[in-house]
Amino acid sequence: MIQCLLCNTIIDNQLSLVQILSFKPIVEKTICDDCADQFEYLKPPFCDGCGKKQIVEELCSDCQMWRDKSGYLLHNRSLLAYNEATKQFMQQYKFAGDFRLRQVFSDELRHLINDLHADLIIPIPVNEYTWKTRGFNQVVGMLNNINYENLLISKNNNQHKLQSHKKRYERLFTKQPFKLGDQSLKKIKDKKIILVDDVYTTGRTLYHAADLVQSCQPSELMSVTLAR
Ligand SMILES: [Zn+2]
Ligand SMILES: [Zn+2]
Questions:
Q1: Residue 202 Cα, ligand 2 centroid: separation in angstroms?
Q2: Ligand 2 centroid distance, CA of 153 (Å)
Q3: What distance in Å separates the CA atoms of residue 75 and residue 225, rounded to the nearest whole number?
């Protein structure tokens, strides 16, 4: 008997004939169909920068601002739209600290990352305060069967206020919260790098991370997040 990790409904995990005959690997459900239907998967056309859904494929105004400010454009791709279901999911996963939820989207996230054929995956770290209160890095939690390196380190700069509790303008003006770990230059130079975070909100956090990675001259730099 399996219960939906989100609403606790009993999941019917009986295989349909179609599934059996498809000879595809069987993926164990972690959430029920009703809950699954609440999530919106992002499909093209995207903004070429942040990967958010667009009516026509063009660079959104936020990404134009980032490109001008940073001198480069970070190409981000996300699995889900940040809708009410995603918001509640993040609430339960991050803030209630329900570590089981790391499994819900980990397979799909892995496919998204693998399709981009990177040389090196670098997760966005959590700060010490989050580490102490939550006890896990929600990004690393979702990286199941993916090789990654913690080349970004959270600086201990007493930014105790969580990003998610900040207003939009406050987020845009946060100082560089990361530094690079040992041998980053050697590991990043001329390699295709993918940064991974849970949610792309203003882009501030990912651009901070990307600035550091860019300083090591990767051949290509992208990011992937669960939600946008
Ligand atoms: Zn459910
Ligand atoms: Zn954009």
A1: 10
A2: 26
A3: 11
Residue 120 located in a structural domain: yes
Residues 6 or more apart whose Cβ sits within 8 Å of residue 7 = 31, 32, 34, 35
74 Cα to the center of ligand 2, angstroms: 9
Mean pLDDT (whole number) for 187-198: 98
Q: What is the pTM of this model?
A: 0.91
- What is the domain count for the chain? 1
Residue 7 lies inside a defined structural domain of this protein: no
Distance 4 CA to ligand 1 centre (A): 5
Decide if pLDDT at 216 tops 90.
yes
Q: What is the pLDDT of residue 41?
A: 97
Residue 177, domain member (yes or no): yes
- Tokens for 7, please give them: 């609403």
Query: Is the omega angle on the peptide bond into residue 45 within 30 degrees of 0, that is, cis?
Result: yes
Distance 171 CA to ligand 2 centre (A): 17
Q: Report which bound ligand comes closest to the CA of 228.
A: 2
CB 200 within 8 A of CB 51: yes
Q: Closest ligand to 7 CA?
A: 1
